[in-house]
Amino acid sequence: MRTVLLDRDGVVTINRKYNVKSPAELRLIPGAASAIARLNREGVAVAICTNQPEVDDRIIGKHELDAIHRSLRMVLAHRHARLDLILCCTDNFRSQRRKPSPGMLCEAMRRLGAKPAETPFVGDQVSDLEAAVHAHCRPVLVRTGLGRATEQGRIPQYAKPVAIHDDLASFVDSYCRRYRRKREGALRRDWSSPSAGRHRSAANRC
Fold first, then answer.
1. CA 112 to chain centre
2. Which of 80, 90, 192, 193 is a good FRET partner for 159, with 20 to 30 A between their CA atoms?
3. CA-CA distance, 138 to 31, in Å (whole number)?
């Protein structure tokens, strides 16, 4: 299944110090909901893969984190947008799930039936780009959140090339255009093949 993976803070929601600690602090980045809704309409699965070490650090509890994600789903639903999956790593130490490790991304693709080479992961930090590379996904950087500072800093050579967009909406525009061109090219190839010619002749006889 075609899938787009997203970081949460700085891509979908506005960054907070120590991340979002309650539903009341949750604010969407302008254009993020409509971008997700557009992917939904295109039949693309959308999953969030987010580090939330504040739980292990006891800044917030697991119940508060669950409430934040319920609120996020509700806010998106009011804008006709839907998340197919939210994966969260609460480890405050380096682990196989915590980005830049690829664990969450691999789990999301496995659960959604996605192919890594065709799956972008959109983030705003170097750890997001590194996780994408480790998971064999396409790394995408947006300039929202910490993204502009990341772009101006040092992106590891092994994480390049990186597609860079102003925000999630800009990325989705590019993603949908790219898929449309790919689909139109496949249709042209199908219709120009000998077997397609036979099908057209059969169709004309019907």
1. 13
2. 90
3. 22
What is the per-residue pLDDT across 7-21, written as a single tens digit (0 to 9) for each? 999 999 999 887 889
* pLDDT (tens digit per residue) in 48-74: 999 999 999 889 999 999 999 999 999
CA dist., res. 149 & res. 151, Å (int): 5
Stretch (H or E) spanning 63? helix 62-78
Q: What is the pLDDT of residues 86-124, one digit of tens each?
A: 999 999 999 999 999 999 999 999 999 999 999 999 999
DSSP assigned state of 1: -
